[in-house]
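Second attempt. The first submission of Homoserine kinase had a stray character pasted in from the spreadsheet, which I only caught after the job came back as garbage. Lesson logged: always re-copy from the clean sequence file. Corrected sequence (321 aa) follows.
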Amino acid sequence: MAVYTDINEGDLKAFLTQYDAGELLSYKGIAEGVENSNFLLHTSKFPLILTLYEKRVEKNDLPFFLGLMHHLADRGLSCPLPLPRKDGALLGELSGRPAALISFLEGMWLRKPEVKHCREVGRALAAMHVAGEGFALKRPNALALEGWKGLWAKSKDRADEVETGLEEEIGNELAFLAAHWPKDLPQGVIHADLFPDNVFFLDDELSGLIDFYFACNDFLVYDLSICLNAWCFEKDGAYNITKGMAMIEGYQSVRPLSEAEITALPTLCRGSALRFFLTRLYDWLMTPAGALVVKKDPLEYLKKLRFHRQVATSAEYGLIR
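This time the job returned cleanly.
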């Protein structure tokens, strides 16, 4: 359940008077998402998403996230838009939390993505990277190499509770990535969390991207590595090279990769697999029983990491020169 902070109808109606959003007709919590509390509102004017930003999201980062959505939409990318208050601000407060109203995006996320969907995601990711050019605000990636080291320091003493030998294996992996992480690749704004539940489709047509609350500045091709991990592995843990080929082709149809990016892709895939393994491991070990945070199995990404460790070139992901 993604509602960590509840709201009452009276407070919500008072909150809505700060916006040109019409009168409240109904609202309900949305049982998806991990970081924030989300509600679907129906008003006399239009449906809206209400997001209450929980403690895991830094309030100082919110101008970056909300401003980025406007920047991308102004350049033709389909994504939700923050609704300004009557005083022009994009951010308000409700139930003691920073809060924003976001436009409702039609569509559903796919439980079983197919090859054609992976191609569309590749195109959309590249389009987002192009549209992000010129965005004035900057946000460093807090979950890059130094962030991984910090997460690991908090988890390593208990890692072998999850699987014997993990402490040594992940320590060695971090050392490898610290020594081999690429430099001087093309950078820009990345989504950093473009999993299937953050991409909406209508009748097999991609209708938009959502949830920009991990967006930051980093290597553009690192974002592609995250998507290969999130979209191109099957339930049994096998990498689907046909899906990978389609995703990479879709991406390159909009933004061709440089030779340096192609060479770096296997290392970046190892890094993005480790990133999601470490955040899942930390939550798995540190979240108390009965807490509202949804815990995801870290071993899923450990298997992916081990696959990437055996990859020699980007051709094994389906990249055709």
